[in-house]
């Protein structure tokens, strides 16, 4: 091999950066760049490859191609590896490392694949020279790259050692930093290299540990990103051209010195003083601290700098995304502030915002002129690009409309609270509904549990875009936080959709955060986060009160008891016996806890039975004065003998329950199937009275979430 020889190279890059990388390599080395399945490929001299390693801001790794084939098999892999004359690349007494990826029928583990490639290489060298190289996993003389892809196989040498995104300057990072080559990709996509040549300025008003600021400064200063790296893998390669490499290093240092003298203003700001200090330490280590600086200042405090001249250019930031649902409402104000600053103080600037959340991006209130997709680690993100001075009237009109809708939501909740205040205080309850999709734009149910809120979002119709529905949910949470002066962390949020089978009782999270609420003098344990429901069906409050008021000295059966709230009410109401039946051990334990909160305990007088209610009823020989029967609409639990459909099976359930009811007793039968129709045969056989209007409490009158019946035995007479 000689300096003028042409070689082929493969270059990898982050997902979404491929197109930008092709342009960058063409500019760096003036070579023709093609597509490769993990990035790009180009042909050129060793000096071209060295130049890419030194100057590429977007690449991850550069490989010298030694061989590839379209025949994918174990035998072909061996032929491909052994066709390389390895003693041209590695001394017999040297060290090597093999990085293998892919699978073959004979190779199902990458470690085994690496072992086979290593064996073929060292066996070839030993057969020729009588000695063999050793493996060095940390600092080898050569690092061999072998990959089995779906339709091709590749063998080459790694030129870069560590990934090129590791520039060598990063000493400390704040939360959720972006990689250096992604930061450069964002800057290039936003047009910063061209703007920097025109001496325009750069701001990052949410700079964190300063990755975007540093990368913007290095671009503006014509500072080769590879100058800070300690070593490249090609420097130990037998055919390394050190003369060409030293010339490139000297040229890069000269360009850096000249570039720093003429670079424009690059400034960062952040509300976290700790990360600002780290960012400035990085700038110091790079010799850029006189030209570039980061300052401790929040978005709310930010003003246009006066200590040095700035020319309208680029503001690019990577604000928090709010990966957890509960974090997002807190970020709405942040994204709105971004738009406010853009319109009011940076109207002549270009704005770039990277986020994974379209809903938050909408809050900027500007119409992007371009959107570009990138992967920030595992997250698919979008770079939104705005011209801050454009479309002000349209953004203001959109903001006004949104504000009017939010105010309407707040007004309705205020009205509801006013109507419920006297009733809530008189009844002595701490958990009640304050809003239930009263306004079409905000299709949520809001319940107050003491000092907490529980918000259930109804699944939006298919005609409403997902982003629009989520934006409304975020606005609702923000409004609730403001109205009740509580942090969003005290608002539990769930999406309510049509449930099938046991899914309505399945676990959502595992915070284990329980607390008590009081209802008509009864203490009940609730959990707002871990399950779809909270442990307390608020719409059955009136029925629980009725049981409490009418069970003195009576025997009460609670079927499909869930967390046995009816049982606790019956105990407080001085029932002589209660039996609670459910198929869930979790909820039966919860029911025991509720009973204990009210001074009771499990025993002969208060039994908790783990059983399929349908089967238990069929075998029941006891009799009860009050029976509560509130089955799910549908259940197909694997623990049940048969599925349960309340419309289909309610005759069996009612008849079986009535067989256990005393002559003067009453069955409270309810369900939440909207189209439920009580069988005519039951009206003929029993004294059935629809008491839904009485059983639905005041805070649920508008929605009427259940149907409820009193069923008694008929007497001839």
From TrEMBL:
Gene3D superfamilies hit by this protein: 3.30.2130.30, RNA methyltransferase domain (HRMD) like, Vaccinia Virus protein VP39
Q: Where's it mainly located?
A: cytoplasm
Pfam assignment, any one: Methyltrans_SAM
**Which residue range or ranges hold the THUMP domain?**
48-159
EC class of this enzyme? transferase
Instruction: Name the EC number(s).
Output: 2.1.1.173, 2.1.1.264
> Where does it live in the cell?
Cytoplasm
Q: Which HAMAP family match?
A: 23SrRNA_methyltr_KL
Function summary: Specifically methylates the guanine in position 2445 (m2G2445) and the guanine in position 2069 (m7G2069) of 23S rRNA.
Q: What is the protein's given name?
A: Ribosomal RNA large subunit methyltransferase K/L
Naturally occurring in which organism (per UniProt): Reinekea marinisedimentorum
The organism's taxonomic lineage, starting at the top: Bacteria, Pseudomonadati, Pseudomonadota, Gammaproteobacteria, Oceanospirillales
